[in-house]
Amino acid sequence: xxxxxxxxxxxxxxxxxxxxxxxxxxxxxxxxxxxxxxxxxxxxxxxxxxxxxxxxxxxxxxxxxxxxxxxxxxxxxxxxxxxxxxxxxxxxxxxxxxxxxxxxxxxxxxxxxxxxxxxxxxxxxxxxxxxxxxxxxxxxxxxxxxxxxxxxxxxxxxxxxxxxxxxxxxxxxxxxxxxxxxxxxxxxxxxxxxxxxxxxxxxxxxxxxxxxxxxxxxxxxxxxxxxxxxxxxxxxxxxxxxxxxxxxxxxxxxxxxxxxxxxxxxxxxxxxxxxxxxxxxxxxxxxxxxxxxxxxxxxxxxxxxxxxxxxxxxxxxxxxx
Amino acid sequence: xxxxxxxxxxxxxxxxxxxxxxxxxxxxxxxxxxxxxxxxxxxxxxxxxxxxxxxxxxxxxxxxxxxxxxxxxxxxxxxxxxxxxxxxxxxxxxxxxxxxxxxxxxxxxxxxxxxxxxxxxxxxxxxxxxxxxxxxxxxxxxxxxxxxxxxxxxxxxxxxxxxxxxxxxxxxxxxxxxxxxxxxxxxxxxxxxxxxxxxxxxxxxxxxxxxxxxxxxxxxxxxxxxxxxxxxxxxxxxxxxxxxxxxxxxxxxxxxxxxxxxxxxxxxxxxxxxxxxxxxxxxxxxxxxxxxxxxxxxxxxxxxxxxxxxxxxxxxxxxxxx
Lengths: 321, 322
What we know:
Chain A has a domain at about 5-175 and about 205-230 and about 285-300: Rossmann fold (3-Layer(aba) Sandwich). In chain A, about 40% of the residues lie in helices and about 20% in strands. Chain A has 12 helices and 13 strands. Chain A has helices spanning about 15-20, 55-65, 80, 85-105, 145-160, 185-190, 210-220, 235-245, 255-265, 275-280, 290-295, 300-320; strands at about 5-10, 30-35, 45-50, 70, 110-115, 165-170, 175, 190-195, 200-205, 205, 225-230, 235, 245-250. In chain A, helix 1 (about 15-20) packs across helix 7. The longest helix of chain A has 21 residues, at about 85-105. Chain A is globular. Chain B is an alpha/beta fold. Chain B has a domain at about 95-315: Glycerol-3-phosphate (1)-acyltransferase (3-Layer(aba) Sandwich). Chain B is globular. Chain B starts with 14 loop residues before the first helix and ends in a 5-residue tail after the last helix. At the A-B interface, helix 8 of A face helix 5, helix 6, strand 4 and helix 7 of B.
């Protein structure tokens, strides 16, 4: 007898892939994908059009006797939501409602949350490698990163109130791959890339396949705990730009976002305060807990994952002439 | 020395090996070996050094190289950064190193040294000493203030050169992975002290470095540096300017700011670096890393050994510019 899993945020790239990946996995009978808008391409999983901001989600959880909830519905760029306030609504209010529904549900036993390493913030007082229990010295102040901090707070609150539910939180470094488009990839693919003068941040990447695989394992192994997820090693921003063949435009930190925004008009490139701090000081995750407790080491190192992204980009360019 | 000058690239003696070969039997005759460096190896070594530095710089333009998780680029450090300061090390300060065997050939160790000189030239020279004079050419990974890492260019260079923030996490991580770590516990109190207080050790903080060594069971190597005090003798500290610039101090030296950029040229003092006998920490009872009395005791021991050795070296040196 398998279980029923719900995946939120399936109309976006990674959520959709995740739902489909869980279909036909041993121990899983049924996968229900939930999102506000229908997926751009049909899913192998069942699709239920529901707003996680709406308490109606409870009905889905009860009727299908859902055991596992995979929350991938936190969105990173206002563009995806249609505005910052809608984005914050979906991220924070959506998570509150989802957790509320989980709390009322008698069947839910496992929750897996996709979070981000951006919750650590970034700055000169951070240790070179950040462990899951590091307390952020430069906590994020805005945007997606701050939303993610709030989301994690609600998740921790939920875990306290429902100790019978196993909760796993995955904090991902920048996810890249042939199909992923994020604020970071939009930034890196700008025609001229503005950088912070005098700084060459250490970046890390996770390949999208590894991101899906670690989430799949967390679901099947019924893992609990908080885990950093990043490909081994680091890539300096300057190295990344050289590999992309991009020209960089070093600017003083205080004007970099203004000029960046005007250069990237029409793209999603992220120049929020927290992102600029990240592009100044970088961030490297200690992933030893991922290896020792989840038994998972990403197939792609940070460098390989970035290489796959560059390769995908080249293929795209040659397709479109 | 003849075979080092006929252009073999890969199997050349390193400058430091050459220097050791010259003075292998006992302490180096100072003037003679410094002169030998200039006439025999100095010029020639510098030539190939330039070619190598150029090659490394070019490879950095393609992005095709690897740095470790801390951002350390060993090849760039050796072939470019240290290469730039080696002339200063050999010919300007004529650094003499003793006790290099106190540093193990492999495994973690913590070098604790006195800090002076208005700007941290002493730590850079210690890095050259550890890399060039030690038979295993060990890299010195230093722990620096957060001010370093928030300063444009400087923070970036520091990371590339293998250094990181002075915090428990980083110190223990480096020591555990078998690196030689350097700390200057006096911090800004040390480098920013007036010339009148030269060679008098300042407070060693709370001895956080000792707990990192004890926790990871690595030896502590008290290290005394003589010579750095005289490079920029700080006569006064212009605090109002320091406050405006957000700096811990703003030095007034006999030549700076009076002579402008020329005042940045360090005075050619004669340097000695001595690595004292290691203090083992792996034989302490468990729980010592959290026992303040043990930590204070070791901190005092380290501090006293450095202070005593400073006086010895000063007596040995005679004149500051000799």
